[in-house]
Write a structure and sequence with these properties.
Radius of gyration: 19 Å
CATH topology of the largest domain: Rossmann fold
Order of helices and strands: EEEHEEHEHHHHEHEHEEHH
CATH class of the largest domain: Alpha Beta
Structural class: alpha/beta
CATH superfamily of the largest domain: P-loop containing nucleotide triphosphate hydrolases
Mean pLDDT: 87
Low-confidence stretches: none
Distance between the termini: 26 Å
CATH architecture of the largest domain: 3-Layer(aba) Sandwich
Shape: globular
């Protein structure tokens, strides 16, 4: 494990839904710059962790610390402002807007001009809007989809929509990026390309990545550490090569080959 300082610390995180325990006593120390994978069967509690970190859910118990600050129960927009961005299992784009405008929407979170300046088209408004377009195009270029900037987001291929979703998340200027099944629905070739892309994103932007993923080739090829959940509990944690042969993990996957 990296010796870097922890950017995210979680202690005893628990979530109940009407008497059903979705997550119990979960913990994490996440060093800056690490790529961590969360794996486990459907319903194991993985997306619940993302929703608790990002403020979508309030925990029933436990604490979340972000860069040494207690952020337990803060609203999603505040968590985003503090440096956490995410993508979703089901792609959530503004399908009728262009690719460029999808990214610009995220950049507007940090705009400094006022409504009056926008209505009057004053110089600061024009200057900031021009800068946002330049930044958006740079992100699209980095992700290989700048040539699609003026296309409606809904017309993109599945793989390019995933890339756009990552571009929009990066536009928020995060320090931690949470990826929820980022290669779901991709072909083997697209998945292999995604592995290289996510590593490039980590290195280029100095991010910490956490991904939920069912494609074991992606997990084994990308992640530096894995946590395995089952029925809302953490059952194993370690390097991918150790997790691959862990008997409890294999049993949780009902005997499936973890290389499948």
């Amino acid at each position: 494990m990296s010796a870097a300082a922890s950017c995210l610390e979680i202690r005893g995180l628990t979530k109940h839904f009407y008497g059903v325990t979705a997550l119990e006593d979960y913990g994490l120390d996440l060093p800056q710059g690490e790529i961590l994978g969360l794996i486990g069967p459907n319903g194991a509690g993985k997306t619940t962790i993302f929703n608790l970190i990002t403020g979508v859910y309030r925990p029933s118990a436990g604490q979340v610390q972000l860069f040494g600050r207690d952020v337990t129960g803060l609203r999603p927009e505040r968590i985003a402002q503090l440096g956490v961005a995410r993508t979703f299992q089901n792609i959530r784009l503004f399908r009728q807007l262009t690719v460029l405008d999808n990214v610009r929407c995220a950049l507007h979170l940090e705009r400094r001009y006022t409504l009056l300046e926008a209505l009057a088209a004053l110089p600061r408004f024009a200057r900031e809007e021009r800068h946002m377009v330049e930044r958006a195009l740079a992100l699209l270029e980095f992700l290989g989809i700048a040539h699609l900037a003026l296309e409606p987001a809904g017309d993109l291929s599945y793989g390019d929509q995933r890339r756009l979703e990552v571009a929009r998340a990066l536009a928020m200027g995060p320090k931690i990026l949470l990826l929820d099944e980022p290669t779901a629905g991709m072909s083997p070739l697209e998945s292999a390309q995604a592995v290289e892309l996510f590593r490039k994103v980590r290195d280029q932007f100095g991010l910490t990545l956490v991904l939920i993923e069912h494609h074991m080739q992606v997990v084994m090829g990308l992640c530096e550490r894995l946590q395995v959940l089952n029925y809302g509990r953490l059952i194993a944690e370690g390097r991918p090569e150790d997790i691959r042969v862990n008997p409890e993990v294999v049993e949780a996957y009902l005997g499936k080959d973890l290389d499948a």
